[in-house]
Amino acid sequence: MSAENDPLAEVRRDRPLLPFLPLIYVAWADGELTADEAAGIRARIEAQELEPGCRERLVRWLDPESPPPARELQAILRTVRRAGGGMSDASRGSLAALGAGLVALTDEGEI
Fold first, then answer.
1. Rounded alpha-carbon distances, angstroms, from residue 78 to 6, 39, 43, 49, 65
2. 66 dihedral zone (left: phi>0; alpha: psi -120 to 50; beta)
3. What is the DSSP letter of 14?
4. What are the CA-CA distances from residue 43 to residues 39, 40, 48, 71 (Å)?
5. Buried/exposed 34-60: b ≥16 CB within 10 Å, e otherwise
6. Is the pTM of this model over 0.85?
């Protein structure tokens, strides 16, 4: 897939976002994110030391009034599945472990 056809190409270059991808996907997996759910996730994001651009992208992805496009969510799911493919069943059960797996794949040049 070319970079212009890949909605996550920029995200994969912005490593601090990677650990949040599983959380973002799960938040939208049922097709709806309530304001309370979004607020809870935003509170966790605010507790992290992130560059303003990373924080803004994450908060934008968590806006119940403007959900991420289906194409982006599909790309997030593909990326998370790729990270989880090489992990044990026990590790895949944790969003934090999946996030760490995404960072490791980036370190290895696989995503």
1. 11, 26, 26, 26, 24
2. beta
3. S
4. 6, 5, 9, 26
5. eeeebeebeeebeeeebeeebbebbee
6. no
CA 96 vs CA 7, 44, 47, 61, 85: distances in Å: 23, 13, 15, 18, 15
Express each pLDDT in 33-74 by its tens digit.
Answer: 888 888 888 898 888 888 888 888 888 888 888 888 888 888
What are the CA-CA distances from residue 14 to residues 27, 53, 58, 90, 97 (Å)? 20, 9, 12, 27, 18
